[in-house]
Amino acid sequence: MKTKIKQITLLVAISVGYTVSAWSANLPFTFTPSLSQPGLTTNTGTITADTMQGFDNALITITQTSAGVYDTTEQGIFSVRSMTLGGNALLPSALAGLNSGLSDTWGLYYTFSLTTTGNSFLQFNQPISTLNFSLFGDAGSDTTFSANGSTIFNNGTDILLASGGLINGTVGLASGSPFNLQLSANETFNVNGSSPGAGTFFTAPNPFYMAIGTSATAFGGNNVSSNCGAIGPGVGGSCTVTITAGAATAGYTQVPEPEVLALLGLGLIGFVSLQRKRKYA
What we know:
Layout: E1 7-14, E2 29-31, E3 47-49, E4 51-66, E5 69-85, E6 88-89, E7 106-118, E8 126-139, E9 144-145, E10 152-153, E11 159-174, E12 180-188, E13 202-204, E14 211-218, E15 224-226, E16 238-253, H1 258-280
Parallel strand pairs: 1-14
Antiparallel strand pairs: 1-16, 2-3, 2-13, 4-5, 4-16, 5-6, 5-7, 7-8, 8-11, 9-10, 11-12, 12-14, 15-16
């Protein structure tokens, strides 16, 4: 049976109230937290949901390396705190003890980092150079994070469940009051082999999703602070943007399989060839 390639859409919206970019409807997924290696909990129940929700802490550093050239790095965490299915919040009994603010048996969080180089401090949709993430399970739900997401505490027994790297993506910044951030990217999503601790945590679909897409929007306010100003740090200088406890959501969606895309491409080539033959007949 051919392996289907699907896409996880990680919809991250950071602000006091959040907005989410338009994506196709989230697909359901099933986790079994007791089946990671070792198990995150002794509760043998499964979780079926289509959306994860939580908070995001991140530190963005912008360095102007020369006239009109800006290097940007971002490092942070996304901590999952609750899940929904069909728009309805799952109660603790349906979360197998997931820390949802109502109970605290175990937890999930993503760490991520990205870099990009652009020729304008305010340039939107500049290509991301690198982007990497890791998904961890937190047995005991005792892991905590610094306000800017750059430091993680009490994570010695946390379990790596999945990881991924950049396929393609863009990021844009706009300073002023408030300071705004927009990000959209596609990354690989690796479970088996690279993350032996995953066990069969990812229960359904089987095989699990193999790519992840991310979208983020951050607005200034109580969650965002910056010392960058409106014109940037100046040549040789750096400035920072800190995101603290921004709202975040994550969900899964499907992308076309490679063989479908290939057939579409062949169909277009055949159509163009036929039109050319007709034109010169």
